[in-house]
Amino acid sequence: MSKKSLHNKRVWVTGHRGMVGSAICRQLAVNHDVNLLTVTHKELDLTDLAATQEWFEENKPEIIIHCAAKVGGIEANKNQPVEFLSENLAIGLNVIHSAAKYNVEKLVNLGSSCFYPKVSAQPISETSLLTGSLEPTNEAYALAKITLTKLCSFYRAQYNKDFITIVPTNLYGEGDNFDANHGHVISALITKFVEAKQDNTGKVELWGTGKPLREFIYVDDAAAGILMLTENYSSLEHINLSGGETVSIKELAVVIQELVGYQGEVVFDTSKPDGMMKKSLDNSAIAKLGWQPETSLVNGLQLTLNYYQQRDENYGI
Ligand code: GDP
Q: What domains does the chain contain, in order, with CATH numbers?
């Protein structure tokens, strides 16, 4: 497998203000000697092909880590399938086609653990892709991610492009979207418990049955894994980025509740969807490359809670 050093390269992290993109930028600033390229959504609309290509011509990225995406938790995905499919597809197609056109040396695309079939043998191996129907609550996002993953493989097969896809398991941490209705479960639960404690609300309402199992990786660990794979992985096959802890939503809620110190009632609203009953990824391929996450779930949750509370202090939210 060919190695690609980041040293002195013009590395463009798309979506650098998002949770994953910003974690990658933090690590590149400390551990790597790169010429980091970033551009805000306001400065460049990645759904606009002409503007995107103009940006490529001016900035000449050599390596792209493509993190820009429209993301959200289970309710946001369920309620806006048109935007989740079309925006993610448009952004991805523009970045990937332009990377090919302007001879970018390496492109790293991010897949998603939700793009595997709803019924998959657990832990889910890379070979499960396209072997069954998708989980309906995130079908639109998954379809965009599957198409972009295949496009990267097709570019490698047909035009010998060094484009790879990394499939992270559920991520959380600094920079997450803490909106109680649109965020993923960990950030939403932190917001709900902290607000309930502050406002002395006697009850916190969580979604579904609490029984689904999820695997979580702290975002700084994920960023380290993505950078390791950028330098060391080159293959037609996508690769899972996992090895985190698997817990039920109920167990997760208890840990967050204790860290926050909320002592009121917790109820589950079973009219809200559970999504996949179990989602954890097979990490054998990445483990063979000598990688595993370092942050335990409880430590990562504490770091995320600290971040959320400092953010509140800084911005008076
Ligand atoms: P998923 O992994 O794609 O299903 O995305 P989420 O992180 O949004 O949801 C994970 C699980 O947590 C689902 O079973 C949700 O029903 C459950 N859950 C419980 N309470 C909440 C909540 O307040 N917000 C979110 N997003 N999920 C919740």
A: 10-172+216-243 (3.40.50.720), 185-213+246-279+295-311 (3.90.25.10)
